[in-house]
């Protein structure tokens, strides 16, 4: 029976791609292979190893065919399948499977599952959300081999007669690329986050998506009418006509709003009273650069460099790093690109660097700590960045700095490499700026000292919030306490901005907060010089800044700094938007703030 609000059921998830969709559900349920332990005889071990190696070769062939057939608009996903192919030959997958076949005298399928379990344990200990989610890629690659071993062909093709809302437990990259975009109204999945492949794909083709719904695939039947709200992260099941009417009106309002925003995306982000903020994009792959330019970003405020270290069986060479950084610098020119040095822990290297296991990797050997402990690793990257600086406006960013000595030691390495490049006659930008990421409370408390050593600051809000509040965002028991508007977080942001400007250096924000519309008055009021975010968020943030007045936002910030709770801060921000951003009450009314 439907309840009073006119829907059979409402499921809350994570809004991964904004928009509203109304339509019939299509429950996509590609069956995962079920593997049982099958013992083998001693004399069959070599035959079983050969069967496994043959399945891997066939899987590699399938991936090659996928890469060859990728449509132009999905070329950015080529690196994902390259990673799948590399993982099939990775020591911890390939060699471990072969070893387990012999050691335990089991079938290849079971040995492969055992090897995957061990890799999964390593990934689950990784704190970086984006990197941890790459275990999904490993699982998809392994499932392909298992299907070949079991003699199963491809799944039934996605071929609905009308546009539908895809409902699934999860979607692999292959699932998503073979679904025709004109037949997909929206996506709703049990699993996933804002950085999962499903979310990235949905944003790239501009369809609404809600992920992390936990049990939507079992709660929905194909053909049921759904409303997928990617703005608020909600799926409504079997709504009545009144609710559908309201939803369609919201859908039309959102589309009008987005068209207006896109048309003005290349205008500068300058408040009505003349305060200019640079808006840049966070990227990981070269293929994301067209989205950076198309959405009106003024450069790359954060180039994550971890992918090259994870996507190759061996450590990437200096020349490979240089060629990649150079290509980004040239393609984004004349705008600047800020390259963050390796923000990875020893626990994340799959096969080529070996470190002792750590009980708590998030507080252990990672980011700048790892770079300083492994100087050859660090110096190869520094030299590549410096060489690339001859081909564009390149800046360097040091992650997870917690003290002055870390900066001084890093700068000593940089200076030594500069001198070497001069001796070798290699061109580079002698004035390259070196910045520091503010991500831990200790960095905030001594920000005035750090500012004397750095050319600029960049606040990584994701880690700063997590470390300030002692919250593990992926721990379901405490994740609800992860709150960007906690008074302690607000004060830390303010203190860092004050320290930077007191020392005469620029400060940017590059965490998820930078791309959230609700926080625009906060950053305008603080006087932040730059915001860097996912490319799709750029047009909306630029437009909102143009509607602000710096003096009014500064007044709001004074009230925020005296607020005792996050609820009070939310209400102040909501009132600021309603009172000062004419016609932008929508920012508050799209979804309830509570």
Structure commentary:
- Helix 13 packs parallel to helix 15, helix 14 (367-373) packs across helix 15 and helix 23 (550-561) packs antiparallel against helix 24 (566-580).
- The chain starts with 8 loop residues before the first strand and ends in a 5-residue tail after the last helix.
- The chain contains 25 helices and 16 strands.
- Helix 7 (173-178) links the parallel strand 4 (164-168) and strand 5 (184-189).
- Helices cover 47% and strands 13% of the residues.
- The model is unreliable at 1-5 and 346-352 (pLDDT under 50).
- The strands form 2 sheets. Strands 1-8-7-3-4-5-6-2 form an 8-stranded mixed beta sheet. Strands 9-10-11-12-13-14-15-16 form an 8-stranded parallel barrel, surrounded by 6 helices.
- It has 3 domains: 9-29 and 160-261, Phosphohistidine domain (Glucose Oxidase, domain 1); 42-149, Enzyme I, Chain A, domain 2; 277-508, TIM Barrel.
- By secondary structure, it is of the alpha/beta class.
Strand adjacency order, main sheet: 1-8-7-3-4-5-6-2
Shape: globular
CATH architecture of the largest domain: Alpha-Beta Barrel
* Mean of all residue-level pLDDT scores: 85
Counting structural domains, the number is: 3
Q: What is the count of DSSP helices, taking H or I runs of 4+ residues?
A: 25
The CATH class name of the largest domain reads: Alpha Beta
Distance between the termini: 27 Å
Structural category:
alpha/beta
Unreliable residue stretches: 1-5, 346-352
Gyration radius, to the nearest Å? 25 Å
The CATH homologous superfamily of the largest domain is termed Phosphoenolpyruvate-binding domains
Helix content: 40-55%
Largest sheet: 8 strands, mixed
The number of distinct β-strands equals 16
Tell me the strand percentage band: 5-15%
CATH topology of the largest domain, by name, is TIM Barrel
């Amino acid at each position: 029976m439907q309840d009073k609000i006119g829907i059979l059921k409402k499921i809350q998830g994570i809004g991964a791609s904004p928009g509203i969709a109304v339509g019939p559900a299509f429950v996509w349920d590609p069956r995962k292979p079920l593997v049982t332990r099958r013992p083998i005889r001693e004399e069959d071990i070599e035959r079983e190893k050969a069967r496994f190696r043959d399945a891997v070769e066939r899987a590699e062939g399938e991936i090659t065919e996928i890469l060859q057939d990728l449509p132009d608009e999905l070329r950015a996903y080529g690196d994902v399948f390259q990673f799948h192919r590399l993982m099939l030959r990775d020591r911890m997958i390939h060699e471990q499977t072969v070893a387990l076949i012999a050691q335990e005298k089991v079938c290849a399928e079971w040995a492969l599952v055992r090897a995957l379990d061990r890799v999964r344990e390593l990934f689950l200990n990784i704190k970086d959300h984006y990197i941890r989610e790459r275990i999904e890629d490993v699982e998809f690659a392994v499932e392909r081999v298992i299907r070949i071993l079991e003699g199963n062909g491809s799944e039934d093709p996605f071929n609905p007669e009308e546009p539908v809302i895809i409902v699934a437990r999860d979607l692999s990259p292959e699932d998503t690329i073979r679904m025709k975009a004109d037949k997909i109204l929206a996506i709703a999945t049990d699993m996933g986050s804002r950085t999962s492949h499903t979310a990235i794909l949905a944003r790239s083709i501009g369809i609404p998506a809600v992920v992390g719904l936990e049990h939507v695939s079992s709660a929905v039947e194909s053909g049921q009418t759904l409303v997928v709200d990617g703005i608020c992260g909600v799926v409504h099941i079997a709504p009545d006509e009144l609710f559908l009417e309201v939803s369609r009106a919201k859908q039309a309002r959102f589309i009008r709003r987005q068209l207006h925003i896109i048309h003005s995306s290349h205008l500068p982000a300058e408040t009505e009273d003349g305060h200019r903020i640079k808006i840049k994009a966070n990227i990981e792959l070269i293929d994301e650069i067209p989205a950076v330019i198309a959405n009106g970003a003024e450069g790359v405020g954060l180039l994550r460099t971890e992918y090259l270290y994870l996507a190759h069986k061996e450590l990437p060479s200096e020349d490979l790093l240089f060629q990649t950084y150079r290509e980004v610098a040239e393609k984004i020119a004349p705008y600047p690109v800020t390259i963050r040095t390796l923000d990875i822990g020893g626990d994340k290297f799959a096969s080529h660097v070996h470190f002792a296991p750590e009980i708590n990797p998030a507080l252990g050997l990672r980011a700048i700590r790892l770079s300083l402990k492994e100087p050859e690793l660090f110096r190869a990257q520094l030299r590549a960045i410096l060489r690339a600086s001859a081909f564009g406006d390149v800046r360097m960013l040091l992650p997870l700095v917690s003290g002055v000595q870390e900066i001084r030691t890093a700068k000593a390495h940089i200076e030594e490499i500069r001198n070497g490049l001069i001796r070798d006659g290699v061109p580079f930008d002698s004035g390259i700026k070196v910045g520091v990421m503010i991500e831990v409370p200790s960095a905030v408390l001594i920000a005035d000292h750090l500012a004397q050593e750095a050319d600029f600051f960049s606040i990584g809000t994701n880690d700063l919030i997590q470390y300030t509040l002692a919250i593990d965002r992926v721990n379901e028991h405490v994740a609800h306490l992860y709150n960007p508007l906690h008074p302690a977080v607000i004060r830390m942001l303010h203190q860092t901005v004050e320290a930077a400007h007191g020392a005469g250096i620029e400060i940017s924000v590059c965490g998820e907060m930078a791309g959230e519309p609700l926080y625009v008055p906060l950053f305008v009021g603080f006087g932040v010089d730059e915001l860097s975010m996912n490319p799709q968020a750029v047009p909306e943030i630029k437009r909102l800044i143009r509607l602000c007045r710096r003096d009014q936002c500064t007044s709001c910030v004074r009230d925020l700094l005296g607020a005792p709770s996050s609820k009070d801060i939310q209400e102040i921000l909501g009132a600021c938007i309603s009172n000062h951003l004419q016609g932008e009450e929508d920012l508050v009314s799209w979804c309830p703030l509570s």
